[in-house]
Write the structure tokens for this entry.
Amino acid sequence: MCLTVSLLAQLGVIAGKVSSDNGEPLPGVNILVKGTTTGTITDVDGKFQLEQAPNNPVLIFSAIGFVTKEFSVSGQFFIELKMEEDTKLLSEVVVAALGIKREEKSLGYAAQTINASAVLDAKTNNWVSSLSGKVAGLNIQGVGAGPLGSARITLRGESSLNLDNNQALIVIDGIPVSSRISGTGFNSHLATDSPVDYGSTLSDLNPDDIDKVTILKGPGATALYGSRAAGGAIIITTKSGVRKDKGIGITFNSNFSVEKVNRWPDYQFEYGEGRTNAYYSYLDSPDGINTSTTVAAGRAWGPKFNGQQYFQYNPNDPIGKPTERTPWVAYDDHISGFFQLGKNYSNSLSFEGGNENGSARLSLTQLKNEWIIPNTGFERLNAALSVNQKISPRLKISGKANYTNKKSDNLPLAGYNNQTLMYFLIIGTTPNVRPEWFKPYWQDGFEGVRQRSPFNPGPDNPYLGMYEMLNKLNKNGMIGNVTANYEFSPKLELQIRTGLDMSFEFHSQQRPFSMTRYPRGMYREQNIFSLESNSDVLLTYKDTYASLFNVTASIGGNAMRQTYDFAGLYADQLAQPGIYQISNSLDPAVADPLKTKKAINSLYGTAQFSYAEKIFIDVTGRNDWSSTLPFENNAFFYPSVSTSLLLSEIFRLPKAVTFAKLRASWAQVGNDTRPYQTARYYDRIYGNSFTNPSQLFNADLKPEITSSYEFGLDLRLFRNRIGLDVAYYNNESRNQILSIPLDPVSGFSNALINAGLINSVGAEVKLTLKPIANPGFSWTSTLLWASNRSYVRELAPGISNQIIYAHNSNVSIEARVGGRMGDLYGRGFQRSPDGQIVYSSNGLPAPLDPVAKLWGNAFADWKGSIMNEFTIKNVRFSILLDGQMGGEMYSQTNHKNNTLGKTRVTLPGRDGGLVGDGVVKQADGTYVPNATKIAASAYYDNYYQISNAETNIFDASFLKIREVRLEFSLPKSWLEGIGIQKTSIAVYGRDLFNFTQFPGFDPESGNLNGSTLTPGVELTQFPSTRTMGVNLTFKF
Amino acid sequence: MKFFSKISFIFLALCIAFSACTEGFEDLNLDPNRPKDVTPGVLLGQMQYRFVNASMQASRNFTHELMQVDAPRASTSGQGLHRYVVNPGAGVWTSFYTLMRDVEDIISISDRLKENNYKAIALVYKSWGYSILTDLYGDIPYSQAVKAEDGIFEASFDAQKDIYLQILKDLETANGLYDDSKILTYGGDQVYNTNVLTGGKNVGIQRWQKFANSLRLRLLLRISKRDGEVGASEQIKAILADPAKNPVFVANADEAIFRYPGTFPYFNPYYNARTLDWRDGTYFTEFFLNKLNADKDPRRAVWATTVAVNGVQVYQGIKSGYPTTTEYVVGRNSSYQDVLRTLPQLGVMMTYAELEFIKAELALKGFNTGKTAKVHYNTAIGASMVQWGTTMPADFLTQPGVLYDEALSVDKQLEQIMLQKYIAYLFVDYQAWFEKRRTGYPILPRGTGIPAENKFPSRVPYPTYLQSQNAANLNAAVAKMGGDNSNTKVWWEQ
């Protein structure tokens, strides 16, 4: 026996058995010989045998749910080892409201933490969009308005009838920051000017500085934010310095990506310009009169591309006059040729380090974006400093400062309007027209004064738009805080903190002479100063009684002050062309000042009780005094209570259950209002005159109150190989501050009232699977699913319908009692009793049924995503699929493209006309089938008319390949000796493919209405893009 | 327990500190951007401007197409006013009701300040505005309108008859309120010069009074079919009998026109109109231009562009109510002159010409206007020529087609008056259509592309938003009127 044993040892074979604390054998434990790739795995009885081991190796034992253990073999040939359960996994720390750090297991509400890698792995222009598909219940909805990619961020649906109120509160290092967009004030449909997406403070944050993002989904989690918490909160913690035992603490990250349109409407390339297919003629020609440069232009109902020849645009002639017939062909790039490959460069350098008394981190990042539309893009510079220091055993001070400079020489004009590219692409060009024919955009001899419109004179020349209608931005922003913590005793601690979000933004818009909307040019500029400061104090007491009961109690207060100072100066006609200064105004320049101030003072308290680390109960209360509410009645109290029960500790559960927690919470939170809503004021108009405001004030305004309860179960099975987290919630938002639309007959077009009840009900599921977890190969799969329904239970007394947004009278988002938030209403065809489309005797669909009907809902039935991550030695691969089922959207792009014959759906019936499928009402009231043949152009022009919501609202379900990433870390052995700690190179793709029936570019869209991001109605969005990039990281 | 007493002490201290902090909150919530109180002077001018912008654009966009002054170049969808398809709510509903808020404010602020001139001016706007609204739609919210501050968000509809009676009463009240011995205290009037006294009298205020009474005549004539119910004839007689008490327009200088100054900010609303919208999509009709051509009417040069046909510059129109297959080529027919986009006199509320046409009709119907119908008719045409800045050719009134033939039947004489009145109504809100509904004149040709089921409209269906915002009252009004479509006849037309 002895001999055998020593023989085994000599041969380098080591055997053993691994068991858990309580003696149960552990299968699937990985065993690795340190410094080699040699290893094995335990069998079902926890036994293993390692062959060809070196002499007295150090073995590393690892398993999910257990603390990794190193064991130095000193001559043994049989090892018995007990592994400790990893309680750290269950005591993960979460940043909760007010920045209080909490153990995850103690929370009675849903909170999900996302690590930095989620926002760094596949970088995009606005880091916020990289959260898509990573949090159940989080909805990130872009509006397709430009390179800054502003998006609506909502959690758990729409609790307020005011779309702006539904956005989540954004808190960076404990300081609420603005997600407000200072727009140009114009909406997206044929306003005098068009909106520009200038981005927000949130989008300015540098993703390289983000340490983690905690999503507090519901009121239970955010009750301590009181009157600002109804939409949930996103708590962002930026990186702090970390002590470095190895290396010098420098990280360099370089990212380069390209961006391309990922999906196009279904354009047709078979028919060219014209209203009839008889012939084509550029200017008058022997073939006939002009069909191409007048308002008849822009339609693609012209002749088929059959190899024939026509007199066409002559690029060699100053006015394009043709001298000979040229082949009639379609140009594949007639639309795509206006776009370019977008490019993003980002370089980031950070320094960090520290010792037991403090640490510091400094980072610098530069980002440059050249967008898919020529001459648009932006640059951003971020500098972030984080320091903390223990200056005495009891006193610790820390500070964070994030400085941003964001600059753009031109951001594109969004929406449907004469001066936007997307309008031009629909109305201004046809398949027989080449993009470069528009390139000289001034008429010869009229540079700077008269634009050249070689084709349809309706839209502005797109290159005039890109190179002369510039929208500039220069923003300097600072977010920061200083904090002092004093420890009176191990039980009592005081924190005092003050922080601010301050920015100074300069915007300008310049428009050249001869553009359609401003024939004499225009120049506007806005200086926007925005400041929010928060000063708070928090006193925390912790104690343990009888070593079973734990109490943590905090009380504190906060003083919030907001200042918004907008100064617009408008020169809407210029004295001289090409000079973009206010002094060049032809008329007296108009000043448009807007100053607002708001203050909230708050007191709050929170107490957490726990019993034996098994049962946790939290109680919070906050009282807010808000300056925007009527002075006599400006105080409101927001309570919450929540509990967490660790079922796996309280009960004996089956062995498979590693951890089980039941959570429940109830909370009341608020949503207050904007300043100056409680008294009557007159609005300034035409410089020095006044008129009644369109909104009726309310002297008795109250904050909105959302009451919510939530249940959740967190279950981890088979030592965390399977994790399941489910949540159910029910929110009731009362006292909605509604700007109810009034019948203008009443003298006001809307009134501010407290009324209504919105009930949001939803469920969220997160399933985490770790099918393979070997050191050399691991596979993690995360499935997210969330569904929300926000029902309109009540509106103001006597009001059964509230229009949330209306695109003229074409389509509207309406809240109707009994309906859901986001319901889309509009008109449709007249139908016969048996449901057929009613036609007029002229063969066209009869005038639309005047009664608006429900055609869909702007919000998805459910959203889901699947993330798969594989790590194979030094290679990490991940793929994220993200999608939604249901949800509808009105598409202006579809309407206009179809009425102008630009898409393949308008091909049937082109040759010889068509007979619409439907019936004609006879004088006696009976119906006969429609038999009148009409031209395709007339038919589709009517069928897809702008006010026909029935034919222009589409299912917005989609499946996107959201992220694909492949990362390779150079083995450490290669790097030793050259001072590099870690090097990784990654290639990634974002929004690679978009599978959907939606006929526009992207079903995840909407429109920019002033500064409100509006879902459900797409008004010629910019194309959605596919990003592909490469990322390099070096750590020294 | 020591711990809890500590906590509560701190809490109390904080409470005191914080309640002190709310002290500044009341002032903090005072809007630094907008005033709480205004004088009628700063309300009046912008209101006058916005009213005529709405009414003038309505004439261009609605009346001209329906009344065959112009027609779109192409109309493939099979719809359009020129085919008698009237979209619900088309018209000045929202813009007028919104402005009524300022009108009511001027009335109430003037009452408080004892400024009767402002009040009387506001009453004229109120009467003018509501008369247009009720003529468009029939029964409309009136007595309960513009009362959101009193909590009335859903106004009931008043019968057209009751509205007319109150409008006429208001105008009579206004007539009695004018005080021509003082200038308009806070200024702001952009229609007449009411800021100076000439020989101790405020001529501008006198003109407001003339407008009030001229408007009374327009409205009394409009409801003359219902004479028996409302005593229109008696009121007309009373006005005509006492011109000192009830002065009306006597010269072009009196007419109620918001003359666009052409300077910022009170531009003609078409000042920056795109060529595409202004004249490339719409052309004058054959019906309208052929009449002007036949008469060699000098006003056509102000209104219409010429086009070259066989090398000759001519005024040429297109058809109205044509089939969907018809399409007119851009720029080959006469359209609106660019100069109209900056012409000051486009902002018409009521012209002297109209008043003379009214008198012509009254004389024809036996009222004592002091002159014959023919004299009024001729004066009216001359007044319209002056209004548009043209000179009437010497033989204009004596040429066939214009010459007033007193030998014709009363109805045929009326037809003569109404045809010239129609021409003179260019750019005057919806009056040409209202008068066509009242008298049947002028007789418009029916285009071949108008589906047989389409009838010449008698009203505009109510805006569709009312279905959701004021359904109960809407339904009651619709039931009373006998249907909400463009064929329902309003009270005065029944």
Remarks:
- Strands of chain B lie at 70-72, 140-141, 157-158, 256-258, 282-284, 307-309, 312-314, 347-350.
- The two ends of chain B are 88 Å apart (CA to CA).
- Residues 225 and 494 of chain B are 8 Å apart (CA to CA).
- Chain B touches chain A through 91 residues (CB under 8 Å).
